[in-house]
Please model this.
Amino acid sequence: MSSEQIADALEREIICGHYRPGEELKQGEIANRFSVSRIPVRDAFQVLAARGLIDLVPNRRARVINLSVDEIDEVYDLRILLECDCLVRSIRNRTEADTSAIERALAHSNIDARTDRWADSDWMFHASLYRPAGRPRQMAMIENLRSTCRIHIAGYGILPSRTDGWLDDHAALVEAFKERAENRAVEILERHIADARKTVLATFPPV
Amino acid sequence: MSSEQIADALEREIICGHYRPGEELKQGEIANRFSVSRIPVRDAFQVLAARGLIDLVPNRRARVINLSVDEIDEVYDLRILLECDCLVRSIRNRTEADTSAIERALAHSNIDARTDRWADSDWMFHASLYRPAGRPRQMAMIENLRSTCRIHIAGYGILPSRTDGWLDDHAALVEAFKERAENRAVEILERHIADARKTVLATFPPV
DNA sequence: GCCTCCTAAAATGTATACATTTATACATTT
DNA sequence: AAATGTATAAATGTATACATTTTAGGAGGC
Model:
């Protein structure tokens, strides 16, 4: 079990809600669990910290991030900015092969929509929409921001509200994509992400 | 010398051109140089890798990134997207105190423009423009993308072409900022960053 | 009951040691 | 001379050990 594998395994546990926002991660406990020494665990922690999934202060225990309302707001604004830009580039580049990959991802997403795989399938669908843009670094940044959101979604047991409307958005996105209707696609996506933000922020205690 | 300090020191050496793109970083050599064991150096490497400044493959030596033309292109597009958005938010939020901080940064930037501190001062100036937006995460992403660019700028000894025009852009940006002229400010900034990209890409061998 | 101070336990940070993998140099072959 | 194979050197990966720091819990005072 290399440090890279440990980082990936821990990332999955964090975004799946095994560790909650603010919860501590102890080097020793994790080292025992993966049957390695603390050295590779430390390496993995540095990676997770640089990805922004945990807070790491010297001599203090690692903690899963616990974002404030303002920070969540910023993350969703960044998602809107990066995802909409990626979608536009994607629509401009797209070929027929891309479209069929998207329709397969849409079908999968519909099947998983009401299971615990919904978040994974949702990302698979959106990734298929953005992939034709040919922007690997931008995709990595988007995936990272989405992981940040998932920590809170999974940690507080948030489920998508209005699953039907959410699936309708996906179908409408695919239609706009196929018709190369950039502006309509961006409008749908922006509202889609803003809706997700509302659902997450609704779980915060009112000020 | 903690791992965090080592990461920061190495980042500075990399973006200042002490290590060139593609050059190897050896744990042992760096450990000796900073008078520590290889453990904190390894921690620092993980941080630099997650920041995208070095490539890290298990069992292989760490290497400074060496971006292709396509990758440089993507980084500059991301900078335009994130920096212009930040500037707009900044203009909408700004107060008089912000303006005076910007004018101080502009003065510094003008003084350093033809010294080896030009890149640092340039970032200080742009950071002062973006800070009123109140977007710390977006700022960190921008700073990271700028570091990526600086690796190539410093590594290949690229100097800003047309320093006069570049300083004029800064002055014009401040004017637009003060007048809350969003669209004009974004136009200037977009062209300003696109010009920087041209200078960097010009150093690549023609295809 | 609540706060402060102190101590023991626990967790982290890193140096050292050693196993494993990769890189380099040299000899051998074509 | 170029290419291949091999042995040596060097670099990496991680387990262990120990120093340092933080955390947790309780005694004592207000």
Q: What stands out?
A: The mean pLDDT of chain A is 94. Residues 26-28, 38, 42, 58-61 of chain A lie near DNA strand C (CB under 10 Å from a C1'). The two ends of chain A are 45 Å apart (CA to CA).
